[in-house]
Every structure is written in C-alpha cells, then in structure tokens.
Amino acid sequence: MRILLLASAFNSLTQRVHAELRDLGHPVGVELALGDDEDLTAAVRRHVPDLVIAPMLTTAVPEEVWSAYPCLIVHPGPPGDRGPSSLDRAVQAGLDRWGVTVLQAVAEMDAGPVWASADFAIPPDVGKSDLYRGELSDAALRAVLLAVERFASGTCTPLMPATHTWQPYLSQEERRIDWHRDPTETVLRKLRAADSQPGVLDTFLGEEWYLHGGHPEDQLRGTPGEILATHHGAICRATTDGAVWIPELRPRRKPGSPPTFKLPATVAYQQRGAVTCAAPPRGREQPPTTRTRQPSCGTYSDITYEETGTVGFIRFRFPGGAMSTDQCRRLLETYRHALTRPVDVLVLGGSRDFFSNGIHLNVIEAAADPAAESLANIEAIDDLVAEILTTTDRLVVAALPGNAAAGGAMLALAADEVWCRRGAVLNPHYRLMGLYGSEFWTYTLPRRVGAAVAARLTEDALPLTAPAAEALGLVDRVVDCAPSEFAAEITRMADRLARSPGLPARLGAKKAARERDEAVRPLSAYRADELARMRAVFDDPDAPYHALRSAFVRKRRPNETPRHLRTECPNGD
Ligand code: COA
C-alpha cells in the first residue's frame, strides 16, 4: 500500500511510524505541513497515496485532502477525547492511564470515526515528552498498525465514539506554579506536563523564564521559590514542603528579538548579564564523581554509577539526549572510575528515553565561539569513545532505552554489545546537520555493517527501527519490553552475561582483535582524519552546519519537505 505521512515535523513518532511501515514493506513518503494548504494539497496529489496517515499534525488537514484520500490522524488521547493539549492535561492531572486513538480526518478537529485505539500506563514520575517517546509511542504503533490492517482489509468500518469531550489548550495561566502554595507534588506535575515543551513560565532572578524538566529533591529545604543549590547544570528551588531540581531554562522571548532556546539552567543564567548580580548560591557544586555525595548538594544527579555483583552500571540522563563538553567529561570521569572497580561487565545508558543525540547543539550555539565549542564538544565525546574502545579487560554494553542519533548512535557502537529497546528509533547519520561526523564512526560503523551498508545508512539519513538495526548488525539484542521494565530487564541480562562461562575467553579475543585492528590502522588515525574534516566545517563560517544548527535550536521550520523524505521509500535495497 502506498502510504503518505503528513506531519508538522518529522518528529520521533513520525520517524517511528515511517520506519515501522517500511519494515512491513509499504512504500512510504512524507510531506510536511508547513502552512500553505494549496501546496500541501498539490503535494498529496503528486504522491497519489492509497492512505494518508498523520502521526503528529498540529494543524487541520485541508478539506481537499481528507475528502479525496482516506486520512488517519493519530490523536494522543483515548476515543472521544479532543483538543490540542491532551497529553499535557493527562500528565498535569496526575492520571495513571491514558490512550491514543487513530481516527479519520473530518472537517472538525479530532471528531472523526475511530479506526483503532490503544491505552497505556502513565508512570508516576515521567515528563510528557519522555512518555510520548515511550509508552505513548508503543501504544500509537499498535493502534496505527491495527488501523492500517483494518483499512487494508476493506471490510472494516470506523466507529464514532459514544461521546466527545473537548479539552482546550493548556495555557501558561493553568501551568503557572504558585511557589508559596503548591506542594512539591503539584510543582512536579506542572513541570512534567510542560516538559520538554513549552516549559512553565516563571519569574525569578529578575527575569521571565520557561522552566524545563523537574526532579524531586529529598534533602534540601528553604524558603519557597528560593534557589538552594546548583548541580550538574541544574538549579534546585524550594517548594512549600521540599524542593525540586530544574535542569534547563529558556528566557522568555522579547518582542522583536529572535527566538530563545533552552540551555542547562546554570549556563542560561550565566548568559544573561542582567542576573549576574543576583546569582544563586555558589560553592554547592559537587565534584563529578558520583559515588560519594555531599549532603549540601542534594539528591539530583544526571550521571550515576551503581554495581550489582560484577556488573557496573553507568547511568545518565541528559535532556534531549544532548551531551555538552561538560557532560561528556563528567561521563568519562565516571567511566574511568568504573574501570577502577572489580567488575567484569560495564553497562552504559539510562533507564528511560534517549540514549544520546551527540554533541549539545544548544550549548554550542550559545557559546561565545561556537566553532571552538563544537570542537571542544566533539573532542570530549571522542575521548569518551576512545576510552570505551580501548577497554580490553571488561565487556562493555550500550543499553539503549530509547532513541539515539548522530554521534549518540555512534557512541553506542563503541561498546562490545548494543542492547536496544524494541521501540527505539536509530538515526546513525550526521548529514542532516551538515557534519561529516566523528566518534570513531569510520572505524565502528563499517566494522559492524560493512562499508556498503555504512555508506547507505549515512547517505540515506533515514530512521531505523531496532529490529531493522538488528538485521543490519547495528544492534545485537532487541529488548521487547515496556519503557518502565527496561532497566530491570537490562540488569537481568547483564547479570547473565557477567556469569556466562565464556566471558574470560571473550575478553581474550576482544583484546587480540583490538591489537590486530590497531596494527592495521591505529585509532588515532581514524580520529585525526575525522577531526580534520570536522574542523574544516567548524572553521568555515559559510558551512551549512552553522545555519542548520541555528535553525535546529530555534526550531525554525524548513521551507519545504526535505527531499530524502519526500521520495517514497520502500524498505531494503
Ligand atoms: N543538541 C541539542 N538538543 C538536541 C539535540 C542535540 N544534539 N538532539 C536533540 N535535541 C533536543 C531537541 O531540540 C528537542 O528539544 P525539545 O524537546 O525542546 O523540542 C529534544 O531534544 C528532542 O528532540 P526532537 O528533535 O524533538 O526529537 P525527535 O525524536 O523528534 O528527533 C533527532 C530526534 C535526533 C533526529 C533530532 O533531534 C536531531 O536531528 N538531533 C540532532 C542530532 C545531531 O545532529 N547531533 C549533532 C551531531 S553529533
């Protein structure tokens, strides 16, 4: 069946639907809805689709499209639910279950008959975007694939839900935190419902900011609203009955000025000259090791190290999967600490959501010298990858609970084994950011998939499902479980691996293979070649990377659908 995806952006869910439908053998094209209904209608006609699916569309489907082609809309709410902030409202209300519906487009938004739906659990402590890329994405795929099957059968008729409930847009007024009244639980719900976008608008340190992300603090206490500490780029603010950590801030855009973008909280307010006189307390930063913790630093950490038996778990959670120079260096420090421990297996990766999306484009964009910061960031991630590649006395596992892209996908390939949650989407390419790429990918990618497939993956620049990545050799084990089960499943798998009788022989073979490879071409040569090409891009102010990065961080829409998406993509070669 010829399927056209209509989307406001080629976002994570659209990528997953694209990749899963291609895995099933459907030719799939994409058309972005960029504001001009006539252009969109003409583009849909050019595709001549059998079926149009809109996995993430924030505008209405033009009548000329839905009246001429069957259009299925993915709505992030259960049957009968309507409105633009469904998921935000479910999280803010503290619900423990929610749904996703595939309905037919009609004149009124979200009011069409239902082709399929699925429900999912909302874990108590996750942000909206994390939920969207995790539980909701899994449920959406179940519903989309069922809807496609029903549509293809030609024998199913979609059903109207018994009732409809319209829930309006969740305004900043409703999201606002009352620091003098709201207990921690309410503050966290509001922060999580707005995470990662649009954030919660708030005023402090003499400025208006959007607050992005929220984690509980177990020990620190203070006057409600007060900043109590900073740690790993996040700020800790007191509530009426506790405190919360806020990892990222975005200044409110001033009329006539360019769009603002999120940054680690401490970086964001250091950028604003206006607030330096009111800087929050200093001296509470914790050194980057994570095993011992000073009570004054509270209980938040974006990198942790734990051991179970002879397995060491290096867990990290970076908003948006972006890894700044500082984060890469701290992760390397933790990795080196793990190497001093009596463990046989090291597992690298978080419990939920993104594994990594490579260097931190926002921090780079905000730097006084973005070219120099780009290089510093790539050197820092390369140092980490080099340390992993030269670890010959332990087995290293990259455990991917969610999506990975660009340098973040290549980071995983440095490990001996890549374990990937079934629902994760992989983008092992750099081209769309105008970069050649580093992270020793010229060594690790062909080593896994061969030169021809490596060239195809980097050139096609298309997302892959975990099973497709496994079939190509990029992933060793697909872990088919819910997002909230991933950490426990990985712990079980790592324990089995650490106990396997073949482990010493494997380590011996690994050391020998590394020595052989080093003799053929040293790692330093791969790194030098990659960095020479990256430096040429960073140092050229006219290189597309700089404009692409600026547009990416400011969320500027492209003028047209990128050509590599528009082309109908059958799966396979
Ligand atoms: N640096 C900074 N922020 C990043 C990032 C990066 N490398 N990669 C992702 N993010 C942020 C996004 O801006 C977005 O922020 P938001 O939640 O405030 O909107 C968030 O992470 C989620 O990303 P989004 O693009 O919405 O997720 P997606 O699943 O739809 O798309 C990618 C995933 C990876 C395809 C896309 O984010 C991307 O192209 N990232 C850049 C990868 C890259 O080129 N890295 C640099 C080279 S190593």
Automatic annotation (TrEMBL):
GO terms, molecular function: catalytic activity
InterPro entries per the UniProt record, alphabetical: ClpP/crotonase-like_dom_sf, Enoyl-CoA_hydra/iso, Formyl_trans_C, Formyl_transf_N, Formyl_transf_N_sf, Formyl_transferase-like_C_sf, HoxX-like, NiFe-hyd_mat_HypX/HoxX
Compositional bias annotation for Polar residues: 287-299
Pfam families in the cross-refs: ECH_1 (PF00378), Formyl_trans_C (PF02911), Formyl_trans_N (PF00551)
Formyl transferase C-terminal domain residues: 170-254
Protein name stated in the entry: Hydrogenase maturation protein
Formyl transferase N-terminal domain boundaries: 37-133
Region (Disordered): 278-299
